[in-house]
């Protein structure tokens, strides 16, 4: 099993976000890829990292970026097997490819094969990452413990490798990650199977601290925004 | 065996080069990675491709880019196993990761383990790609068959997968690719082994059509420039 993901400055992150840190950025690069693997029920084994960086970037920043990458890789048992470093006249563009495997004889989780009548489940509490992004894009430093936890959910997401493996062992066959939002992911699973889906906004496991957030009902964040 | 490489617009290529074409660009993205694998004596199996593209890029251009990638991958027996597409406000930034394997029981070619007294060899004719780059950077369309062949060597290099496998079977153990130039590659092999190297400029297999090129002696291109 293999996955590749790229993060582009000013699209996926901004250096001027309050609390921005290159080490966190490195960790997040690994996390988005580890999450993709998790969604397949695979165990990460090794990674390749390719960074396109402006020449003006300090070696201090580059060191921290690599440290974050290495730290998150190690935490999830993934070896950095190689990489590439390029100059760019544009935004930081960070790519990682991660390879993993499945326990022998077991099948990966995929989006294919959903059947009519099945229940839809989701792990974790929804909406924090979206609320954190709104704070950051508003240029506001998080002021309360709740706000800090939202920003953390955006900047330092945790790949759900364990949850995926528990689900796989429990017999779940169809799954996806909700980095494009729950609504979009359900669509990706249901539509090719010729199915519709019902989601009940008041039954979504919304992060309790959200309440109403910046005038947007929390369930809208939970349903439509990236996790 | 795995390898990853990134090409950045205005660093590794320019859209305003005479004869620039997105299909060739896609082929070249695969080639630089296939060449890295070749340098290890491995056979390519599958690839992941991650492209960061400006929103203004036409779907026509994107189609051609993917077509070039697919074409070159297929030509060398490599399956495109997945990918990622990102928006960027900066230059096109194209990354491919390629995975390959070695025949059972055989060892990869590496830069490690050179011994004193060994001979240094190189495959192919040197200098064309560098001469082609000089033409392109000068904004001049190639006018003669020789000039066209130099530009082709720059824009459409051929990965030396077969040469690498012949060398491996012949018992060669230490090798590298000369995408940073022959001089630099010999340095990368010799220095960690605590060795020096002698290269004879008049024995380099220089592309005959080069003669003297733009006032730079051909052997300087052959020795120091990227192939």
Structural write-up:
The structure is a homodimer. Chain A is α+β, with helices and mostly antiparallel strands. Chain A has two domains: about 1-100, 2-Layer Sandwich (60s Ribosomal Protein L30, Chain: A), CATH 3.30.1330.10; about 130-225, Alpha-Beta Complex (Phosphoribosyl-aminoimidazole Synthetase, Chain A, domain 2). Chain A has helices at about 20-40, 60-75, 130-135, 145-155, 160-170, 180-190, 220-225; strands at about 1-10, 45-55, 80-90, 95-100, 210-215, 215. Chain A has a four-stranded mixed β-sheet, with helices on one face. Chain A has a two-stranded antiparallel ribbon with strand order 5-6. In chain A, α1 packs parallel to α2, α1 (about 20-40) runs parallel beside α5 and α3 (about 130-135) packs across α4 (about 145-155). The radius of gyration of chain A is 18 Å and the shape is globular. The two termini of chain A are about 20 Å apart. In chain A, about 40% of the residues are buried. The interface of A and B includes residues 88 and 90 of A.
Radius of gyration of chain A: 18 Å
Low-confidence region ranges of chain A: none
Count of distinct strands of chain A: 6
Q: How many domains of chain A, as an integer?
A: 2
- Largest sheet entry of chain A: 4 strands, mixed
- How much of the sequence lies in strands of chain A comes to 15-25%
Annotated CATH architecture of the largest domain in chain A: 2-Layer Sandwich
Q: By CATH's scheme, which homologous superfamily of the largest domain in chain A applies?
A: PurM-like, N-terminal domain
Dominant shape of chain A: globular
Q: How would you write the strand order of the largest sheet of chain A?
A: 1-4-2-3
- Along the chain, the helix and strand elements of chain A come as EHEHEEHHHHEEH
State mean pLDDT of chain A (0 to 100 scale). Answer: 90
């Amino acid at each position: 099993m293999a996955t590749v993901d790229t993060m582009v400055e000013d699209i996926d992150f901004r250096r001027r976000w309050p609390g921005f840190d290159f080490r966190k950025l490195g960790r997040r690069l690994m996390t988005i890829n580890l999450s993709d693997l998790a969604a397949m029920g695979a165990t990460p084994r090794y990674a390749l990292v390719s960074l396109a960086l402006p020449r003006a970037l300090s070696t201090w920043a580059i060191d921290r970026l690599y440290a974050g990458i290495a730290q998150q890789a190690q935490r999830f048992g993934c070896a950095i097997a190689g990489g590439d470093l390029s100059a760019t006249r544009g935004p930081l563009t960070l790519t990682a490819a991660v390879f993993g495997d499945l326990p022998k004889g077991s099948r990966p989780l995929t989006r294919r094969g959903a059947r009519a009548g099945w229940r839809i489940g989701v792990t974790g509490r929804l909406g924090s990452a979206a609320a954190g992004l709104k704070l950051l894009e508003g240029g506001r430093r998080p002021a309360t413990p709740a706000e800090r936890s939202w920003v953390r959910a955006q900047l330092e997401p945790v790949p759900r490798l364990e949850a995926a493996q528990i689900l796989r062992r429990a017999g779940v066959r169809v799954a996806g990650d909700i980095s494009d939002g729950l609504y979009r992911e359900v669509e990706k699973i249901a539509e090719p199977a010729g199915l519709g889906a019902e989601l009940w906004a008041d039954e979504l496991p919304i992060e309790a601290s959200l309440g109403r957030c910046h005038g947007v009902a929390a369930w809208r964040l939970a349903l439509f925004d990236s996790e």
